[in-house]
Design goal:
The chain is 29% helix and 20% strand. By secondary structure, it is an alpha+beta fold.
Length: 150
């Protein structure tokens, strides 16, 4: 968010933002993919998916990575997402936006950042997480669950 400029017509300050693709965005996108494969239709994020307001606001960033398409009916995963997850083609990990438009890598705003955007494969995100159940934690500790007859 270091790059700023002032609009010449309205004198409004325009700020450059970066968005990073992380394992949480990918896991939320996986919910959309499951809905799409099951119903073969567009998904309304508020009605069809179980998303909190924070997740809903961050979900919009996936458009910048061209992983979802937004339309008046809702959102669906793009062909790029399907190739990204199934054929293991890499995707950029960071995207920069200026006025909700994606800026190119040779834009002057990119000169303020030291690190260049890199490409990652889906397997490098470690997005398939699983949680242990309470009983599994107790078995690891050697704790026996109490029963009626000790």
């Amino acid at each position: 968010m270091k790059y700023q400029k002032v609009c010449e017509c309205c004198w409004e300050k325009v700020v450059w933002y970066t968005h990073k693709l992380n394992k949480w965005l990918i896991s939320w996108l996986d919910q959309l993919v499951r809905f799409y494969k099951k119903n073969h239709t567009w998904a309304n994020l508020q009605r069809d998916l179980d998303l909190s307001i924070n997740i809903y606001n961050n979900f919009q960033k996936l458009q910048y990575f061209t992983l979802i398409k937004k339309d008046k009916w809702g959102r669906i995963p793009t062909d790029f997402w399907i190739r990204f997850i199934e054929w293991s083609i890499p995707c950029y990990t960071t995207v920069a936006t200026l006025w909700k438009n994606i800026i190119r890598f040779d834009h002057p705003a990119r000169q303020t950042v030291k690190e260049l955007p890199t490409k990652k494969f889906i397997r490098e995100f470690d997005w398939q997480y699983s949680y242990k159940k309470r009983e599994e934690y107790q078995l690891e500790r050697g704790f026996r669950t109490p029963t009626l007859f000790w």
